[in-house]
Specification:
With 521 residues, the protein is an alpha+beta fold. It is 53% helix and 19% strand. A hairpin with a 6-residue loop joins strand 7 (226-230) and strand 8. The chain is rod-shaped.
Amino acid sequence: MKRVKNIKPGLFLLFLLIIPTGLFTVVEVTSLSDQEQMIEAIYANQLDAVLYSINQYADDMVSSWSGNIHRRLAEGGDLAKIERDWPLKNPQVEFLSLIPWPDDSISLGIPQPALSELDREIRLRLQQNFSATHRLFTYLRGGYRKIAGIDLAYNTHLSMFVFALERDGERYISALVVDARRFIAEVLSPRMQAVAGDQLVLTVRHHSSGELVFSSDFNTVPESLTGEQAIWLLPDYLLGIQPVGMTIRDLARQRALRNIGLIVLVDLLLVIGALFFYRSVRRESRLAKIKSDFVSNVSHEIRTPLSLISMYAETLQMGRIKDEEKKYKYYDIIYREAQRLSGIVNNILNFSRIETGRRKFHFSQVDVNEVINSVLENYHYHLEKHHFQVENALDPTLTTIEGDREAITETVINLIDNAIKYSDELKWLKIRTGLKGAFIYIEIIDKGVGIPQREQTLIFDKFYRVTKGALAHHAKGSGLGLSIVQFIMQAHHGRIEVDSKEGKGSTFRLVFPIDKISKNQ
């Protein structure tokens, strides 16, 4: 139940961060088609602008041709000579016909034998478009020479530019037949290349046959185009536009995927940030609880020896004990409890010095067997009091190591103290030393409650205490002992190892390098 309560704030925080960005991601994915339509509309508008520019340029070029023809006609030039010479000067022009214009289509007449096949088709198309062609003279009287484009069936790629001319009251229709492909390639292509630049591909294809006539970049001819539109003067030729290297759909999808990718990245960063935040809050909460437990445990640890010292000292002070042997026993208890109290205070002071980086070590040659014998001698009464059987298996062949004698003594005392606290009915303890490779080791073995596998990596954290089981729960301590032991071993370039099975006891192993000379810290 407690774990569920701890998880709920984290889940709430994750949902609070993820839901808005998740919804935005879903909206972005579902709006792909809308984005395609929007981008297609943008390029359709751009196509209108490009088409207008190209059409205006084509109109200007043909207008300059019509102006030159009109000038030669006004200067009294011979019709037949103008019709013959003009195509020679302009390679895009296949044929020029200056046709006197009647008042009605009937009088236009098409004498079959006298005209070529092309000329007959020109007159036939003019007759079919008589009203529109006749209006060209209305524009001309208004001061504007309008040019009309008409496709010819005579040849797939021939188109006709039609405009009105007048000379001395006589009216003429100029039918300028051009090779549309050459006109596009030689006249319009420079303009289209300039408009396309590096970002666009402009294409022109024949509407009836589908043949590609022009592309501003033949290396990247697009498979599909955005809304093609007919060129004004060449109605059977369609101008299309496309971004370089991709279709509109690809462009929309790329944009959407980029946005989605950024959103997902933000989502991940938010999740990672939320996890770090949650872990930090949880860690601080756990640390606060551990510190609270530490204060409670230390208070109990200090209160117990103080109570005993106070009680026995008061009894002695009041002179109630006459038996000298009993007095000696009371004095011994007071001394032992004072030593225990001193050990607790030293642990706290040592931890404080470690935390602030003020813990110093003084290295010299140390005999680990001698250290262990000294500790067992001093702890003899304490071990007897708790009815412990101690086995001593020290290797007499061990050499000395470079270390801090006081610190090594402290590690052994802490491990023996833990073995006493966490042993239940089997009051048994074994201390063994030995040599393995380039290392000397000290093992403290007990048959206590053991340590669960999942907690074996946590027991070296500051303030952490194993609380599983009745004995572990009631065993008091500051939770600093193993943290201090690990720090001391690191300072000696060694390590502490633990082998333990729940309910079957534990083995703590201090491993010191023989050839590593530690420096004073």
